[in-house]
Design brief:
The complex is a heterodimer of chains A (598) and B (74).
Chain A (H helix, E strand, L loop, with lengths): L10 H10 L7 E8 L7 H10 L3 E6 L5 H5 L13 E5 L2 H4 L1 H4 L7 H25 L3 E5 L20 H17 L4 E4 L1 H8 L1 H4 L2 H7 L5 H18 L6 E4 L10 H8 L9 H15 L3 E7 L2 H10 L10 E7 L3 H12 L6 E5 L2 H10 L4 E4 L8 H8 L9 H22 L3 H7 L3 E6 L5 H10 L12 H9 L3 E10 L2 E14 L2 E9 L8 H15 L4 E6 L11 H4 L3 E2 L8 E6 L13 E3 L5
Parallel strand pairs in A: 1-2, 1-3, 3-4, 4-5, 6-7, 6-9, 7-8, 9-10, 11-18, 14-15
Antiparallel strand pairs in A: 11-12, 12-13, 13-14, 15-17, 16-17
Helix pairs in contact in A: 1-2, 2-11, 6-7, 8-11, 12-14, 13-17, 20-21
Chain B lengths: L1 H12 L20 H15 L5 H6 L3 H11 L1
Helix pairs in contact in B: 1-2
Classes of the chains: A alpha/beta (598), B mainly alpha (74).
């Protein structure tokens, strides 16, 4: 908790905050908790973190004594209602007292048998829960004993108690991976960050079978919300960094190139480690940008000439290095990168800049670095968890590179006066295909993360997309673009549901980096071809307005759809007769390959 | 200290602070069940920087006891 960028307030402060804010107006986040221990004091932390994310947590706890029956659906319980998230707690102390305090008395054979029994049970529970709910499953992994039953000997043995716990977690991981939208939470790292003495509450363990102390529960809730944010499309995408006293010690404009501190030795080593942590984020797909009050040439001189800089120009997707105020600069960076400011984390050491951004742009997460303790910088960034995703797609890995290329593309665009000529000059190759095992994770992720060009903003898990794909009445499409600068990967997704002679566009979205190239209409026309081939006479589009997707409000009208409010309930509906489907012409594209093309 | 304790009890039990007295207990406050009791103990410990022992927790039967135990540990 010490290094958490946004420390969780006290229970009383949380209660005050929930009592005095309009939490009731927020959309619900339905959380069910299955457990065989008491974890009710987790609730305020879940409520607080949900509120921070713009949701109202509705937490329900399963029965204490009939965890397995409830999970397997043998007795009715919390899984009967619609849930967004299911949290599962089964610490070893309550799972198997034999393997916990009774371990030293067991033979290898007995340990093996008990371990197999538990792993089989995990598999059955995951299946049982999944059969009852589509919600995200977060199973809190088994923690290693603080003091292993065999003492220092335990570490020397392959099949000691710690080894056994690792085996149980591996079994758990396998059962979860085999199920979509189900993840293992590393409870052990939570214990280690907090420290076991503060993580556990021995009094309440005996009074109420409640093993975890306040600090432990807060850390667990914080860890859980890294997953939950990704489920709700709230994971942040862009890290905006100050330079002086952030990337290096000192002020380049005053101390000069030789005077600033970054390198292998003290005091520059703390800044070097911070840069390495930034680079880790870059390789995880986080967009890195600079926002600094400096002369631009001074900053680039450091990047080009300071020999110990590990962060290079090529890692920086965009920058505003000038003497303007940072609020305006952050807005400009967001516009340039085609992202919302609510996707940004702003890092600075200055009280002034941090407070200005906090006040004027509350949607931006701020991370203030303590100038007098630069050794903490890397921990603070690693602890913030704002960029965490439970899985990484190939697109994420390449994103940093792609944004860099995007800058070159933008430069060309600035030079090309005519947009059509520009699009032609890119030599774009479009490919539209049907979802398969490789593309499903990316498609699900797009539905979770895309806010702006998204007609209905329906969030789907991998399991949901797989179900659409397997259904005879649905088609799931992806769109890939390659141009002369490189491969953009999957940039668009579409889900179509067939109802009689109608093809209904359930989901249509495009990643920001695909916009402004004229691909939107072409994507839809390929979807129309497929619908026609499947015998549909009409295609229906729906627009559900949100705070973010105003830019697509007239999209279907632009394509020639006729508005018709009688077609459906929520949002604005419109229809298009497929006999008028557009002819296929290359247009501005070098080539287009649709799902029906061999 | 009394004011602080009353405020915490009121917030955790979800009632106005005027409704709290030294005699307030699970008998007089509808919300005061065993789980709220636990939340109250954790909140008191956190906000007033005290650490109760097992016996304190089970012996606390009303707000007066809370105040008494807090003062004993201060």
């Amino acid at each position: 908790m010490f290094y958490n960028a946004a420390p969780i307030p006290s229970i009383v402060d949380i209660e005050n905050r929930l009592a005095f804010s309009d939490v009731d107006l927020l959309p619900p986040l339905r959380v069910g908790v299955l457990r065989n221990v008491t974890v009710e004091p987790l609730e305020p932390y879940l409520q607080y973190l949900a509120c921070e994310m713009g949701f109202r947590a509705e937490v329900t706890f399963g029965g204490f004594d009939n965890f397995f029956q409830e999970a397997l659906g043998v007795v009715p319980g919390i899984l009967e209602q619609k849930l967004d998230v299911v949290l599962i707690f089964t610490p070893l102390c309550a799972l198997s007292s034999m393997l916990d305090l009774g371990f030293a008395a067991l033979s290898n054979e007995q340990v093996r048998e008990e371990c197999q029994r538990l792993i089989a049970l995990f598999g059955a529970v995951v299946k049982g829960v999944r059969a009852q709910t589509d919600g995200m499953i977060l199973w809190h992994g088994v923690e290693a004993p603080v003091y292993p039953a065999l003492g220092i000997q335990d570490t020397q043995l392959q099949n000691g108690q710690a080894g056994l716990v690792a085996l149980l977690n591996e079994g758990l991981r396998e059962a979860l991976v085999a199920t979509g939208n189900a993840f293992l939470v590393n409870t052990q790292t939570c214990v280690e960050r907090v420290g076991a003495r503060q993580f556990y509450d021995t009094r309440y363990w005996h009074l109420a079978r409640a093993p975890y102390a306040r600090k432990g529960l807060a850390e667990i809730a914080f860890e859980d919300f890294k997953f939950i944010r990704s489920l709700k499309g709230k994971t942040r995408k862009c890290l905006v960094l100050d330079c002086d006293n952030t990337l290096w010690g000192g002020i380049v404009g005053e101390d000069g190139l030789e005077g600033i501190r970054v390198g292998r030795d003290h005091p520059g080593s703390a800044f070097l480690e911070f840069q390495l942590e930034v680079l880790s984020h870059y390789h995880r797909g986080v967009i890195v940008a600079l926002c600094s009050k400096n002369n631009e040439d001074d900053v680039w001189e450091v990047f080009d000439k300071q020999p110990d800089m590990v962060l290079k120009r090529e890692h920086i997707a965009a920058w505003r290095i000038n003497w303007e105020d940072k609020v305006g600069n952050l807005r400009a960076l967001a516009a340039q990168l085609n992202i919302g400011t609510e996707s940004m984390v702003f890092v600075d050491d200055s009280d002034f800049e941090i407070n200005l951004v906090r006040q004027q742009m509350p949607e931006v997460q701020v991370l203030q670095l303590p100038k007098e303790r630069p050794g903490e910088y890397r921990w603070l960034l690693a602890a913030c968890g704002a960029f965490d995703l439970p899985y990484l797609t190939e697109e994420d890995r390449k994103r940093g590179v792609r944004y860099q290329v995007e800058n070159t593309r933008k430069q060309i665009r600035a030079e090309a006066t005519d947009l059509e000529a520009y699009c032609r000059s890119l030599g774009m190759v479009l490919e539209i295909g049907m979802a398969d095992a490789f593309s499903i994770p990316r498609i699900a992720q797009q539905t979770q993360k895309t806010n702006q060009f998204n007609l209905t903003t329906k969030r789907y898990s991998e399991a949901d997309i797989a179900r659409f794909r397997d259904s005879a009445d649905c088609d799931v499409f992806w769109l890939k673009i390659t141009d002369k600068f490189g491969d953009l990967g999957i940039v668009g997704s579409c889900v179509v549901i067939y109802r009689g002679q109608d093809a209904v566009i359930d989901t249509l979205l495009l990643s920001c980096r695909a916009l402004g190239r004229g691909v939107e209409a072409r994507f839809v026309s390929e979807v129309m071809r497929m619908a026609q081939a499947r015998g549909a006479r009409r295609i229906l589009g729906q627009y559900i307005p949100t705070a973010k997707n105003g830019q697509v409000s007239g999209f279907y009208r632009l394509l020639g759809f006729r508005e018709d409010s009688s077609l459906g309930e929520a949002g604005e509906w419109s229809a298009f007769e497929l006999e008028h489907a557009p002819r296929r012409e290359p247009g501005v594209f070098a080539s287009v390959k649709g799902p029906l093309d061999a | 200290m009394r004011k602080k304790v009353f405020e915490i009890v009121a917030r955790i039990m979800g009632v106005p602070v005027e409704a709290i007295s030294l005699e307030s207990s699970p008998e007089t406050l509808e919300n005061w069940d065993s789980l709220r009791h636990m939340k109250l103990i954790l909140a008191i410990e956190e906000s007033l920087d005290v650490q109760f022992n097992d016996q304190d927790i089970v012996s606390i039967k009303n707000v007066g006891d809370v105040l008494n135990r807090v003062e004993a540990h201060k």
